[in-house]
Design brief:
The protein contains 13 helices and 19 strands. By secondary structure, the chain is α/β, with parallel strands linked by helices. It has 2 domains: 109 residues, Urease, subunit C, domain 1; 299 residues, TIM Barrel, CATH 3.20.20. The longest helix has 20 residues. 28% of the residues lie in helices and 23% in strands.
């Protein structure tokens, strides 16, 4: 590397900006490293080459040409993995359409307006949110500034809402940020699915049973079905074909279920059809903790959902801690469509209500990576994984701490966002012009 190029890279790293000019090897040195997959390392080093972690430890050989990031006095963790967002999908996330031309948010609340994601009906298994990703979405740099480096971008608004995507929060092109276009099939049980069942939970469950059964039938008798020598099916051929990987346990079913009875139903569906299930919500999950643990079903919990509602009368603040104590694989992810700073707040509130600090960090990094089958690349600081790393000023679950340096796939990212611009503008009054 020439002296001028070396100087340019050092200046960029110091200002936390990424550049294609930067060295292919970066060493984060002197910090307290939390690999997640193992014990913390005092005065640790993380070496990243060509975007991948190559070494983590207290006595690591650092290549002579590596660009160094001084993390002395700081905490080093994997980038946070947000398992439930609308990042890159617009202000309201990916929305579907009702018959009255009102858009539906992920929680099925209606707002006036239109959307490009116009699909009607309760089965939208072929719907891919990856087709609507916007790398310039304003929430992406905000989330990245909060230490989120990887996120599940998911659809909402129907019994079968469509297929979620996995994204890394870097890049100015869709293909640069898209890690997996089809990560999981997103669906709903319980209160959010009643419209699909004629206004009843029982009807929605019956609809799910019909869909999973007919997806298997379609897979086994495709030729007969497409020759129209078969009975009517629960959905169109293409929608059933998209559900076939779910019935084979290849594509996870990411299913919202909050009441105890809804979680029981979800587990029954998974057993009956061999589904790889991930439960989202689980407001009354603590009542089903033993069954969820025995079934080895991961649960995505929003610890802020702790007030009784018609979709979970027995919600409680220590839900995550009780699930974890029973052996459930717990993931923390709130109902934050932008996925900004709320994930750290989830961790802090979970610890306040009984979850250990180590388990809270696990629930925001490695556990979601495991649940969605991407732990070979994400979730911990280990050789071979993507260099998604955050250097924090202090404890990431302390509101007073901040992300000082964020790396995505080994590239140091800019931390400026609309939030930081507004902060700079209104820090003094009258505000400074942009």
């Amino acid at each position: 590397m020439t002296r001028s190029r070396q100087w340019a890279c050092g200046a960029l790293l110091a200002s936390a900006l990424s550049s294609p000019l930067c060295a292919q090897t970066i060493a984060i040195t002197g910090g307290t490293v939390f690999p997640v997959s193992g014990p913390k390392i005092d005065n640790g080093t993380v070496v990243i080459t060509n975007g991948r972690i190559v070494a983590v430890g207290a006595s690591v050989s650092i290549p002579a040409d590596a660009q160094r990031i001084d993390a002395r006095g700081k905490w080093v963790t994997p980038g946070l993995f947000h398992a439930a967002t609308g990042l890159g999908l617009g202000a309201g996330g990916a929305q579907l359409m009702r018959d009255d031309d009102e858009t539906l948010h992920a929680d099925n609340t209606a707002v006036g307006g239109t959307t490009d994601d116009r699909r009607r009906g309760d089965v939208n298994a072929t719907f891919l949110v990856a087709n609507g990703l916007d790398p310039k979405a304003i929430a992406i740099p905000i989330a990245r500034g909060g230490g989120v480096t990887t996120a599940v971008a998911m659809p909402g608004g129907a019994l079968v809402s469509g297929q979620a995507a996995l994204i890394d929060l870097a890049g100015d092109r869709v293909q640069a940020m898209l890690a997996r276009g089809s990560l999981a099939m997103v669906g709903v049980l319980g209160g959010g699915a009643r419209d699909a069942g004629g206004g009843s939970r029982a009807g929605a469950v019956h609809r799910w049973l019909d869909l999973l059964r007919d997806a298997r039938v379609y897979d086994a008798k495709k030729d007969d079905i497409e020759e129209n020598d078969f009975r009517p099916l629960a959905a169109s051929w293409d929608e059933l074909a998209a559900l076939v990987p779910v019935t084979k346990g290849v594509l996870p079913l990411y299913l919202e279920a909050n009441r105890q009875s809804d979680i029981e139903t979800a587990l029954r569906l998974a057993r009956q059809y061999g589904v790889k299930l991930v439960v989202r919500g689980a407001n009354e999950g603590w009542r089903m903790a033993r069954e969820l643990a025995e079934a080895q079903v991961p649960v995505v919990v929003d610890v802020h959902e702790n007030i009784p509602s018609f979709d979970g009368l027995e919600a409680r603040s220590d839900n995550a801690a009780l699930l974890k104590a029973a052996g459930v694989k717990v993931i923390l992810a709130g109902g934050d469509p932008g996925g900004a700073y709320a994930l750290r707040w989830q961790g802090g509130h979970a610890v306040r209500n009984g979850l250990s600090w180590d388990d809270a960090l696990l629930a925001m990094t490695l556990e979601p990576a495991r649940a969605f089958g991407v732990a070979a690349d994400y979730g911990s600081l280990e050789a071979g994984k993507w260099g998604n790393v955050v250097v924090w000023s202090g404890d990431p679950l302390d509101f007073a701490s901040k992300a000082d340096v964020v790396l995505v796939r080994g590239a140091v990212q800019a931390l400026e966002s609309r939030w930081t611009e507004l902060l700079a503008k209104y820090r003094t009054l009258p505000p400074k012009p942009f």
